[in-house]
Structures are given as structure tokens and as C-alpha cells.
Amino acid sequence: PNSRAYAYYLEKECRRQGVDIRLNARVDGLLRDGDRISGVEAHDGRGPVTLLARGGVVIASGDFSASTEFKREHVPHAAHVDAINPASTGDGHALAQRVGAFIKNPEVMWGPSMRFKAPPVETLLRRLPPSRWVTRPMQFALMNLPLWMFRPFVTRFMTASLAPEPSMLRAGAILVNRRGERFADELSRPELQVPHQPGKEAFLVFDDALAKSFEAWPNFVSTAPGVAYAYLRDYKATRPDLYHEAPTLAGLAASMGVPAQVLEAQVQDFNARLPAGDARPGLRRGPFYALGPVLSWIVFTEGGLAVTARHEVTQTDGQVIPGLYAAGSAGQGGTILAGHGHHIGWAMTSGRRAGRFAAERARQA
Ligand SMILES: Cc1cc2nc3c(=O)[nH]c(=O)nc-3n(C[C@H](O)[C@H](O)[C@H](O)COP(=O)(O)OP(=O)(O)OC[C@H]3O[C@@H](n4cnc5c(N)ncnc54)[C@H](O)[C@@H]3O)c2cc1C
Predict the structure, then answer these.
(1) Is there a single domain that holds both residue 73 and residue 177?
(2) Of 319, 352, 345, 305, which Cα lies nearest the Cα of 61?
(3) Do 34 and 61 fall within a single domain?
(4) Do residue 189 and residue 228 come from a single domain?
(5) Closest CA to 42 of 61, 56, 25
(6) Which atom number of ligand 1 is nearest to the Cα of residue 90?
(7) What is the pLDDT of residue 122?
(8) What is the CATH number for 190?
(9) Do both 179 and 264 map to the same domain?
(10) DSSP of 228-253
């Protein structure tokens, strides 16, 4: 019923096959036997551990969006932006580089982009247990019941923590921080400025005319492409923690928890200074609205270690580093995965293939 099911069933099958799973263990070194990678050094809750590999070590440590060092080196303009996934340490990239590997396309990333703050309580869909007793009836319902019946569940997903559409800013919404101040040109990559604001948070503020126009296609507040669209009324219904509405700017400021005088002055200033030729109409008539907080994140980086078609990690001269494999984001090998689902598809497929090639090597040894 949700993404946790992948890990749940994978773990179940691994345990059935006798795989030794070490939780909370961080790999911090590769072991070498001559020029061959022969295992890893790690630390778990109890101290250092050494794990030997007969066939090879498969690096599957994800991307490097949470590594300040890698971001400084490869995407310096976004080094201050947090990763949405703090587990994306880049450790595997760094360990492999130490034995001669290199990263392809390290400057390509998804984001930074603004996203609404996650709901205080996880949605029902996220909390469903990954059991067949749940998924079978869900599957039956999806195949047989009319789609409108699923709208409430889908809406909660659509308003959970997706990105506000940039078209809202183009249509004239402004961004203010927790002090009620505008801090960036909304049309010039404001997502790079959001992390510098108090609490790394911002709000979209707009007037009644804009609110009305974001109640129907083609103006939606957020979307997961190919799934559904969320409009302003959906945020009102499902995210009272994000949705603010008041007849006056002072009332809106009170709801957002920002100083009223500052917000009023900032809106007045924005309206007065709109340059000639700017299509944005300004915030003119109440009621006024705000959506937020939004935060800015790097979703993931695309740069992966260079690998062969057998997922063996290579050096700059194309030489294979014996015994070292890479899969998933860490082993993306220069491929830019632009389509929906391609990343998870690549992670599963490349992981399975790399494991098979390493096992083949163990059998030959
Ligand atoms: C918000 C968000 C939405 C996404 N949506 C989609 C989507 O809709 N479709 C899609 O295809 N993809 C999506 N992706 C991308 C997709 O989730 C990733 O590309 C994919 O999970 C990568 O898989 P992986 O196994 O390579 O790495 P991960 O799933 O990141 O797993 C890496 C693991 O390695 C561990 N690790 C890191 N360093 C060490 C270390 N030193 N020692 C031991 N373990 C370590 C981490 O803790 C983590 O558990 C999304 C990503 C994000 C963040």
C-alpha cells in the first residue's frame, strides 16, 4: 500500500534466505587484498566490525545530497540547501574515490525546490501495514470501484509535502519569511534563498483573485504528475496547518504568526514597485491567503560512480577496480534518470544485477 512495502518484503525474503543484515552499521572503509577490494570496515552500535567479501563489495549508499563536502565541490551554489533525505551521505562515492573511482555527472541534481512542510501526523496511506490482507482489498477496490471514491485518499497524498507550483509565483503570489519580509525576487530562483530565512521557512501570500484562479485546471497548487492535482480548496480541507485565510492582511499575519505591520508594509511596497511590463497584478483585494511553511530541499543528486555494464566500478582510465561494484544512485554511472519511477527502477534492477555479478565472481574464485 505504500513505499515501505518494498523494504518489508525484501527483508522478509533476505531473512528467509539467511542473509546477515546489520542494522545501524555505517561503513567507513574498504579493505584491500592486493588490488582487489576484499571487504569493508564498519561501525555499528557496539563498535568496529570487519566484514569480508568473497565475490565483491556492492556500494549501494544512495546519492550525495546530504554531503556538504560533495555539494561544495560539485554544486557550490546549492551547498547550503539541505537534502530531503539525510541518509544520502555520499559515503560510498567517497570510499570509492579513495581507491581510484570517479563520479560521472556530479553537477546534476533534482532541486533545490520548495516543498510544503510535511503534515504533523503521517497520512493513513503511509501508516497502512504492508500486509497482503490490506493490499488485496486495495487492489480489488482500485480495479472495480469508481475513481472518485479514492479522491479523499489521493488528495491527502497530493497535499502531503509536494512542491507548490511555480505558476503561483508567476501569477503574483509573493514569498515572505517568518518575519513577514519578502526576501527574494519570486521569479528568480527564490528556493536558493529560503534556507537563509529564519527556520529555513517561507510562506506564499496571495489575494482573492489569485486564490479563485487556483481552484480549477489549469491552475493547480501541487501535483504528482500522472497521479492527480491539488487545488486551493484541497489544502483548505486537508492541511489546516498550512492553509491561512483572513479578510485583511493583519488577520492573515496573525494566522501565520508574522508581524502584521511588516506584512502590510511589504505588500504595499510590492504593489507600488511592480515594474512596468511586469504581468503580476499585485495583491489588491481581500480576503488574503497564505500557504506555508514551505522549505527548500535538494531531492537527490544524479552523479554516480562510473561503472561497466556489469556494474563494476572503474577508474578514470576505464580499468575495473576488482571486487568493487556499485548500484542504485551511487552506481548510476553517468545515466540521467529523468522519468518518473526510473530511479527506483534503476535502484532495484542495478542492485539485483550487481549482486548477481558479485556472486558469480565468488563462485569462480
Ligand atoms: C522525496 C523523494 C521522492 C522521490 N520520488 C521518487 C519517485 O517518485 N520515483 C522514483 O523512481 N524515485 C524517486 N526518488 C528517488 C529514489 O528514491 C532513489 O533514487 C532511490 O531510493 C535510490 O536507491 P538507492 O538504493 O540507490 O539509495 P537509497 O534508497 O538512498 O539507500 C541508500 C542506503 O544507504 C545507506 N547508507 C548511506 N551511507 C552508508 C554507509 N556509510 N554505510 C552503510 N549504509 C549507508 C543509507 O542509510 C540508505 O539506507 C525520490 C527520492 C526522494 C528523496
Answers:
(1) no
(2) 305
(3) yes
(4) yes
(5) 25
(6) 38
(7) 81
(8) 3.90.700.10
(9) yes
(10) EEE-HHHHHHH-TTTEEEESSHHHHH
Candidates 22, 50, 298, 344: which one to mutate for ligand 1, based on the most atoms within 8 Å of Cβ?
344
Q: Which regions in the chain score pLDDT beneath 70?
A: none
Q: What is the CATH number of the domain that holds 55?
A: 3.50.50.60
pLDDT for 128 equals: 87
Q: Is 314 in the pocket of ligand 1 (CB under 6 A)?
A: no
Q: Whose CA is nearest to atom 11 of ligand 1?
A: 341
Distance from the alpha carbon of residue 330 to the mean position of ligand 1, in angstroms = 9
C-alpha 198 – ligand 1 centre gap (Å):
28
Question: Do 274 and 282 touch, CB atoms closer than 8 A?
Answer: yes
CA distance 288 to 253: 10
What total of structural domains would you count in the chain? 2
Which of 44, 65, 89, 332 best tests ligand 1's pocket when mutated (most atoms within 8 Å of CB)? 89
Which domain-ending residue is among 278, 297, 316?
297
Residues 270, 193, single domain; the answer is yes
Which letter does DSSP use for residue 93 in this model? H
Query: Which residue, by CA, sits nearest to atom 2 of ligand 1?
Result: 299
Check residue 120 and give its pLDDT: 87
- For atom 15 of ligand 1, which residue has the closest CA? 343
Looking at this predicted complex, what is its ipTM? 0.98
The answer to whether 291 and 169 have CB atoms below 8 angstroms apart is: no
What pLDDT was estimated at residue 147? 81
Domain range enclosing 345: 29-41+48-112+302-364
User: Which of 279, 297, 315 is the last residue before a domain boundary?
Assistant: 297
